[in-house]
Specification:
The complex is a heterodimer. Chain A is an alpha/beta fold. Chain A contains twelve helices and 18 strands. Chain A folds into two domains: about 100 residues, Roll (Urease, subunit C, domain 1), CATH 2.30.40; about 300 residues, TIM Barrel, CATH 3.20.20. By secondary structure, chain B is of the alpha/beta class. Chain B has two domains: about 140 residues, 3-Layer(aba) Sandwich (Rossmann fold); about 150 residues, Rossmann fold, CATH 3.40.50.1370. Chain B is about 40% helix and about 15% strand. In chain B, the strands form two sheets. Chain B has a five-stranded parallel β-sheet with strand order 7-6-5-8-9. In chain B, α1 packs across α12, α2 packs across α12 and α5 crosses α12. The longest helix of chain B is centred in the last third of the chain and has 26 residues. The chains are: A alpha/beta, B alpha/beta. Chains A and B meet through α5 of A and α4 of B.
């Protein structure tokens, strides 16, 4: 089996390539890239004229919800949502039921993914047993079972001593700790960002300091232990400043940002739409500007969606009782192309890098570049396609998005995993 | 200009002319209270449901009397002892009630945004009777009507709102209403009870009671909820009352002789208000309650009555 992708604009930031080229895939690997490769070389030819051909996108922050919350999402539906959104690999967070804090759950997720998944699935193991924040999970065995990182995402490990031990203990595994940075005392009872909008709405707000304090703590613990710490869903200007300073001092800290924290502000909460409720909350305009700047200059290493599916009933009631989080896999690429790349605020190559080679580098995952011999995971984009976000058409089981009805230009065209087209 | 909205959700949504229409309508209806037969047929055949998810005596009774004086059929629903207590969700309960074709649903709920949620889910008119710490528009309207009855106008009046501003829907609704009508508003309380960036709503902030009440036309004292102490917002009732309780001495020392004292109730006597002030000559607290019925008649009439007359 071989596939020849003809005449696409190949954007492969890891190899500094941005040119119209042909890509020849042989089996599950990339065979060659070059101009005018002979048609006879392939059994199948795909005309990609006018399309963008790039390394498959990797989302290192996804909630697949299986096991335990199959009514929200499953490995089958979540990976289809990923494929539909142009992602060829996802890392799934540990806050399932039971929690992915032991090998049997990791094995279960991987087995499900092998049978029902359409994109690559890399589990993330819990840091603490049951996400309880009190004792370490069996981290070595989780790493051996295939967990690519450790995180209690959804909760912050408030006990700094325990978190320090987790960082030390995982040092030999090469898998970082991913921090959900939130001081739960400062954020207790809150449903949005603290600011003038929360004051007007009478909705208790979490100050930016609730995030910044824990980012600062985790940077200090990374310095103390020499561990690699990755900060999930950075949302404040203060946290950006802390990460930037830490990187300048050589501390091994990395960070991600979500599309919604780049594109939306706390103003979206004004209608009490629970689809504007997530954690960390939507912040101020100033925060979004600082986040974008940090994404461009590399202070923020990658984009991750924090895809967090919830059933309709968990989102349609009172704002303060609604679940936190939104789905993101199927909207990320279109939104970022339209709202950031199209107006010139974010270079295309940077966007692709932050979605592919950068996340691959952070977690040591295969893919992320199109060098000959690399896994044939590719995302093909139609940059001119105009479409409207219609949640009822999502491949995800859940519909909780604040972007319904947005019309954007640019969307994934075909998603290729291991040489096979998994979505078009 | 007439009333065009389906719902009354928030003072923030209204412009000055709409607020004045509501106040004027209420003013014209208040004489019903002094009639021997307190009944006019304005809302005959209309159904009003009071959907109360939070305890309330004054507001619910006020809406009920208002509806009955206008000849509407008024049904009271409270969350305790109902399907809500059996675990039915708020929105499901509301949709079930809406399926019985009420004309107006008056809703009180502890969650900010609950009234807005009903307004976009149900086709009948929604009146917000208090949603969390967000808004309580009919309270602001009755406060405005009371102030105008005593002062004769709005423009240029100065008001101090004192106490737990952060958790007060009454404060928010009054701030919006008063600012739109050209009044000056100062909010005052310990900094833990003043919400961040409140100045951006167009108010001044004072951290001493004495500074707040000096030379204002109206002092509005807010109730201190006892749970604020367990949240670490104030150290003790004793300390709060010492620094933020309004006593006759403080009034005489700082306030104008014609100042009006208001309170949305229920009053914590001896905490935010000393009994001599609550019952004294400056107090118009019971007047507020009386005006409450007139304001709710006005609101119900504009939402449910005028459509029938136009038809």
């Amino acid at each position: 089996m071989s596939l020849l992708i003809k005449n696409g604009r190949v954007v492969d930031p890891a190899n500094s390539m941005d040119a119209v080229q042909d890509v020849l895939i042989s089996g599950s690997r990339i065979e060659r890239i070059g101009p005018d490769l002979p048609l006879a070389a392939a059994t199948t030819v795909l005309d990609a004229t006018g399309k963008i051909v790039c390394p498959g996108f990797i989302d290192i922050h996804v909630h697949l919800r299986e096991p335990g919350y199959e009514y929200k999402e499953t490995v089958a539906t979540g990976t289809r949502a990923a494929a539909a959104g142009g992602f060829t690999a996802v890392c799934c967070m540990a806050n399932t039921q039971p929690v992915n804090d032991n090998r049997s759950i990791t094995d279960y997720i991987r087995a499900k993914a092998a049978v029902e998944g359409v994109v690559r699935v890399y589990p993330i193991g819990a840091v603490t047993r049951g996400l309880g924040g009190e004792e370490l999970a069996e981290l070595a065995e989780l790493a051996e079972a295939g967990c690519v990182a450790f995180s209690d995402d959804g909760r912050c490990v408030m006990n700094a001593a325990l978190y320090r031990r987790a960082m030390e203990y995982t040092l030999p595994f090469g898998a970082p700790i991913i921090s959900h940075a939130e001081d739960h005392e400062l954020s207790r009872g809150t449903s949005m960002n603290e600011g003038v909008v929360s004051t007007e709405l009478g909705v208790p707000g979490a100050p930016a300091a609730a995030e910044d304090i824990m980012v600062a703590r985790d940077i200090l613990l990374a310095e103390l232990t020499g561990a690699r710490v990755h900060i999930a869903h950075l949302s404040t200007a203060g946290a950006v400043r802390l990460v930037r300073g830490a990187k300048a001092r050589g501390i091994r800290v990395t960070a991600e940002v979500t599309p919604h924290h780049l594109l939306l502000t706390e103003d979206a909460v004004r209608t009490f739409d629970a689809n504007a409720k997530m954690n960390p909350p939507l912040r101020s305009k100033r925060d979004t500007e600082v986040l974008l700047e940090a994404l461009i200059d590399g202070t923020i290493d990658c984009i991750a969606t924090d895809h967090a599916p919830h059933a309709g009933s968990e989102k349609e009631g009172e704002f303060d009782r609604a679940a936190f989080g939104i789905v993101g896999l199927e909207t990320a690429v279109g939104l970022l192309l339209d709202r950031l790349v199209k107006p010139g605020a974010l270079p295309l190559a940077t966007l692709i890098s932050r979605l592919s080679s950068d996340p691959a580098r952070l977690l040591g995952l295969p893919g992320g570049n199109l060098a000959p011999g690399a896994a044939a995971d590719l995302t093909l984009i139609d940059p001119g396609a105009v479409w409207t976000v219609d949640p009822s058409k999502f491949a995800s089981k859940s519909r909780n998005t604040p972007f319904g009805g947005w019309t954007v230009t640019g969307r994934p065209w075909k998603t290729i995993v291991g040489g096979g087209i998994v979505w078009e | 200009m007439g009333w065009t909205r389906k719902d009354l959700l928030a003072m923030r949504d209204l412009d000055a002319s709409e607020i004045l229409l509501l106040v004027d309508t209420a003013a014209s209806l208040q004489e019903i209270a002094s009639r021997e037969i307190k009944k006019v047929p304005a809302l005959r055949g209309k159904t009003i449901v009071n959907l109360f998810y939070e305890n309330s005596t004054r507001t619910r009774t006020s809406f009920e009397i208002a509806g009955k004086w206008l000849s509407a059929d008024v049904v009271n629903f409270s969350a305790s002892g109902s399907s809500a207590a059996k675990g039915e969700s708020f929105i499901d309960t509301a949709k079930n009630i809406a399926a019985m074709s009420p004309d107006v649903v008056v809703v009180r709920h502890s969650s900010a945004g609950a009234a807005a949620l009903l307004a976009r889910s149900l086709s009948c008119s929604i009146v917000n009777a208090g949603d969390g710490a967000h808004e309580h528009p009919t309270q602001a309207l009755l406060d405005l009507l009371t102030i105008r009855e005593h002062k004769g106008h709005f423009e240029g009046l100065s008001v101090a709102i004192v106490g737990d501003i952060a958790h007060s829907r009454v404060a928010r609704s009054n701030i919006h209403g008063m600012r739109k009508l050209g009044m000056t508003v100062t909010v005052a309380g310990p900094p833990t009870l003043i919400p961040p960036f409140v100045q951006e709503l167009g108010v001044k902030v004072a951290y001493r009671l004495e500074d707040a009440i000096r030379d204002v036309d109206v002092i509005m004292m807010l109730r201190l909820q006892h749970e604020r102490m367990t949240a670490g917002l104030v150290p003790s009732l004793r300390e709060y009352s010492r620094y933020w309780g309004l006593t006759l001495d403080k009034l005489r020392a700082q306030a104008r002789p014609d100042v009006l004292i208001m309170h949305p109730g229920p009053v914590n006597r001896g905490i935010e208000l000393s009994p001599e002030v609550a019952d004294g000559p400056y107090s118009i607290i019971l007047d507020q309650v009386t005006k409450g019925v007139a304001v709710r008649m006005g609101v119900l009439f504009l939402l449910a009555g005028s459509k029938a007359e136009q038809a």
